[in-house]
Amino acid sequence: MPSNRLRVVTVAIAGFGSVGRQVARTLLARRARYAQVYGCEVRLVAVCASRGGVAARAGLEGIDTLALEEDRTGPTFLAELAPDVLFETGPTDFATGGPALGYLTAQLAEGRDAVVVSKGALVHSGHALRALARETGAALRISGATAAALPTIDLVETGLRGARVLSLEGVFNATTNFLLNAMMARGCTFAEALGEAQAGGFAERDPSRDIEGWDTACKLTILANFGLDLGLALEDVAVSGVGDVTPAMVAQWRAQGQVPRLVGRLDCTGARARASVSVQTYPLDDAFAHIPGKTKALRVVTDCMGEILTMGGGPEPIATASAALKDFELILDARGRSGQGASGNFFLG
Ligand SMILES: NC(=O)c1ccc[n+]([C@@H]2O[C@H](COP(=O)([O-])OP(=O)(O)OC[C@H]3O[C@@H](n4cnc5c(N)ncnc54)[C@H](OP(=O)(O)O)[C@@H]3O)[C@@H](O)[C@H]2O)c1
Asked: Which of 99, 170, 203, 340 would bridge 197 by S-S if both were Cys, CB 3.0 to 4.6 A apart?
């Protein structure tokens, strides 16, 4: 017999900075959509940051006025609420996996789904987290960690399904793209371009991970492992950044009609995949020469679907939050079709 009762889906957010708060705001604003399209009543039952958090089984409201209570944080705090879906939006720490590792392990071990935005745990322990999710039947979705609004993981996983990826190259870091464009267009030095980006609020106060190429290397590693099932470690990627680009190099590229990009490259044609991050130059008739300011791009070469290019991006943190919420909708859709969450926690309210 058809039922118009809504399935209750509970959500928690670990990491309540600019992306976590934006996820919360947009999630609450889209509740009518989740009810209409997926038949779900979505309740945000907990959020937490480094030193505190807040929970309400009936659902939190008023994101911008929420008062976090001290010490209410950590994997145990969230696990007590057994959220159907966890958004992980904490700091990226690829040396240790960071706090994300504890949150994700606790969530996936119970067969509950996770949407990940930070990169550290995926780089450090991606293989183990994927194995855990497979074992428990939990969904582990990672769009926010692989260039966010730019379809990267979706493209290789779904859009190119059945094709063999021979190689890919991506401009995955908007900050370095802005810096190189500024140097090429206005002839400013690297330090001047960086100062401009920091004043505009789109370069971190400590931009070393971006400019040294590590942010790009992390995204490439995650894409290779989650999208193409390769066993790539961050140490396997030969990484160099944009810090050594000089005005003399810029002048020479200009004279040659070449445009520089910081590019993550993966070549899958040999016995072992080869991965690198470095400054590459492109002639003006190549689409990669025309990637505007804070935009990202990915080009994939396949055996039977030709060469596919995707380019774009939106304002942050809305674009990243929206990529995570796209993952959330894919989970709602899949769970709706299968009848319940892997943990059996999606229930009729
Ligand atoms: N900003 C973007 O546009 C963007 C785009 C793509 C990916 N990302 C990734 O998304 C993640 C979040 O970025 P963001 O800009 O939102 O960073 P952010 O503003 O610095 O927020 C990070 C949040 O994580 C919290 N946190 C730290 N340790 C924690 C712990 N042990 N348990 C729970 N929460 C903890 C922080 O708490 P406190 O507030 O107490 O310090 C803060 O609320 C990062 O990994 C970043 O690399 C960001």
From this structure: 203
